[in-house]
Amino acid sequence: MVATGFGSGYSPIAPGTAGSLVGLGWFWPLSRLSGGAQAAALVVVFFVGVAASTDLARRMGAHDPGRAVVDEVAGMWASLLLVPWSASGAIIGFVLFRVMDVVKPYPARSLESLPRGWGIMADDMMAGLYANLTLRLIQSAWTS
Question: Rounded CA gap, 116 and 100, in Å?
Fold first, then answer.
């Protein structure tokens, strides 16, 4: 259940996008918490995600099975971490994360080669970091 984002990884169309939408929905209540609590929640999801996706990959006999979308949940959270919550920011953050997750700018793509769940999770965390930084730049330019 954890590895598949509570079933969103079974979506017949774009399971990664479905997992990202789950991540966006679950981040909304976290956005009201302190930055430290948000970061702690992300760290927990990351390490639980490593274990869960490692198990799913082993059971499916695949390096990075498409059903494993906990990485999208964590990456989405990284995209919005410490960013002031707004509907427009959430939408832009979502789009930016999906783009970064598909494009995988350096070193995100190379992180996929890490063993087991580490590779499954790490590339999406890097994509989330890039999305977060880009979102901050957009918000900074918009308010200037």
Answer: 21
